[in-house]
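Example 3.2
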Amino acid sequence: MNSPLSMLVQARGMLWGDFEVETFVQPSDIEREWRQLEASGVATIFQRYDWVDAYVRHVLPHEDARPAIVLGRLDGNPAFILPLAISRVGLARIASWIGGKHSGYNFGLWSPKAAAVMACRPRAEIETMLGSMLEGADCVVLGRTPKIHNGIPQPLSPLQSSTSSTEGYSFDIDGGFGAVLAKGNSGTRTRKIQRRERRMAEAGALQYRMLRDPAQAGAALDFFSEHKALRLADQGQPNSFAEPGVTDFFRELLERSETMQEPLLEMAELSVDGKTRAVIGSGVHNGRVNVYFMTFASDELAAYSPGRVLTFRHIEDSCERGIAAYDLGVGYEDYKTHWCDVIHELDDIYAAFTPIGTATIATIRLGQATKNRMRQNELLWQHLKSAQAYLSRRA
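Structure, written as tokens:
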């Protein structure tokens, strides 16, 4: 096995052990390799070419970040892609996954062979490779990285890491909706949904539908933006969906999805009396639904939980479409535990290249550990959240 001393730096990249590694500034520079690896390798929906390319176009410029996309080849074939961007935080220049808060799971793209080879590399060698490829970066911070995805362990696991403050929630639905309901108290759950639907239907015709028409899907996205902003403001929470470029990013995902068999973004709607009451935005990758967001109107029908009704019908519809798994995303919510029996453990992965990077990672890890300890004290955590909401409303 080659050591860092035996690495050969080339004009267009670097020979590192069995890999030829290069860094690119735009997804379009390696679109062919990206789509090849996307189709044959292991990745999440958040690292698909079109998802990352749309984010780079619309959001990354407002984050004052520059792409640094690392491509590795093995035996001349695309082996892995790490869609990263470098931004300045205080004194440090940090490389992190492209997608920010909107990228739920961050695994990179890997061929099975490349994943196995990388996982056997010593930590120091991987750090040397990343430091050479991420010119100008003091460190790399890779958040919300699954320990395992589609049966493949995280190839960068030799690097130092800590458990993320959140986890993902999903469940299998390939056995059909009846099998999904049978895992819990199916009769009670179904009766509750039907009772809520009957109460809402007293106000007018109730309809669930997937919005295939671009204009209707766009209107549902507008509904989400408006009502999500209202709910987060009421809770005193920051609104990442209102940040510059984010709405345009989701609009482009809708546009790109029109001809896709597995859309990057599609909208589901629950309406009563012709008015939208709740919407879900989700994407599909490798037979898996990934829910990005959901919200509902705080109107006279909110007491009947239109969001939960919509989730119920969306899961039922996904079963009928032959989807294999349904993922409710990262972050704990009580309703997720009613459906999900798979919890995805996530790590935050780190590598430092300079003394500033080392100090930055130490600070980040200390803050994360403190936050995790607070979250374990439910009473303290609720008081902190209440105080945060109060201060946000006052501001």
